[in-house]
């Protein structure tokens, strides 16, 4: 598949990585940092990729860095920065700690979002578990998002529930695997 979507992708890289005890984006899996695995999947899906971070270590990937406007506000702050940065109506948002993500999952998600524009948020689900950091977010949520950040209402799931959203079931649950701990990394290394 070629990169045929104009929807830009933003990878959120600003977490504290407290459970992993090191920068998750730079953790190696099969000799490549997590972030490189995510970028490789995105390269088959879109031509516009940005990293939401101020960390200069990420300049090595040759992608634009976008800084949070609202600092230390977690994923909501990163989504806000992405939506504020883009000129497009929708953005694809991914966390940096999903090294098994693949272009098929991303294509399913983007296709669903583009074919159902009535919902402002589309995100991956598997076995009734929400994966909101594998999602497509519409610029239309920006005013509500800004208000939530100003009021310090920072729970992403709570924010999503205030919006029009659509859950996109993903059959390949492995591609949604979030690696947050050293133990999870060991487990993932066993299955690939």
From TrEMBL:
Q: Which residues bind Mg(2+)?
A: 97
Q: What is its EC class?
A: transferase
What are the BP-aspect GO terms?
Mo-molybdopterin cofactor biosynthetic process
- As recorded in UniProt, its EC number(s) are 2.7.7.77
Provide the species name.
Leeuwenhoekiella nanhaiensis
Catalysed conversion reaction: Mo-molybdopterin + GTP + H(+) = Mo-molybdopterin guanine dinucleotide + diphosphate
Protein name listed in UniProt: Probable molybdenum cofactor guanylyltransferase
Q: Which residues bind GTP?
A: 12-14, 24, 68, 97
Q: Tell me the compartments it is located in.
A: Cytoplasm
Stored InterPro entries: MobA-like_NTP_Trfase, Molybde_CF_guanTrfase, Nucleotide-diphossugar_trans
The UniProt keywords, alphabetically, are: Cytoplasm, GTP-binding, Magnesium, Metal-binding, Molybdenum cofactor biosynthesis, Nucleotide-binding, Transferase
What are the record's GO terms for cellular component? Answer: cytoplasm
| GO function terms (MF aspect) | GTP binding; metal ion binding; molybdenum cofactor guanylyltransferase activity
Q: What is its main location?
A: cytoplasm
């Amino acid at each position: 598949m070629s990169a045929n979507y104009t929807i830009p992708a933003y990878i959120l890289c600003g977490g504290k990585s407290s459970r992993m005890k090191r920068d998750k984006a730079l953790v190696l899996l099969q000799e490549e940092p997590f972030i490189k695995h995510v970028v490789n999947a995105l390269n088959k899906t879109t031509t516009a990729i940005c990293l939401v971070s101020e960390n200069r270590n990420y300049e090595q990937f040759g992608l634009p860095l976008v800084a949070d406007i609202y600092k230390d506000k977690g994923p909501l702050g990163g989504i806000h920065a992405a939506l504020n940065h883009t000129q497009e109506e929708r953005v694809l948002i991914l966390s940096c700690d999903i090294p098994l993500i693949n272009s098929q999952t991303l294509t399913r998600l983007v296709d669903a979002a583009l074919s159902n524009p009535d919902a402002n948020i589309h995100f991956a689900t598997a076995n009734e578990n929400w994966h909101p950091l594998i999602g497509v977010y519409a610029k239309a949520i920006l005013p509500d998002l800004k208000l939530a950040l100003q009021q310090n209402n920072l729970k992403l799931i709570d924010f999503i529930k205030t919006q029009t959203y659509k859950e996109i079931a993903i059959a390949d649950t492995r591609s949604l695997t979030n690696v947050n701990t050293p133990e999870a990394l060991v487990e993932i290394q066993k299955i690939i």
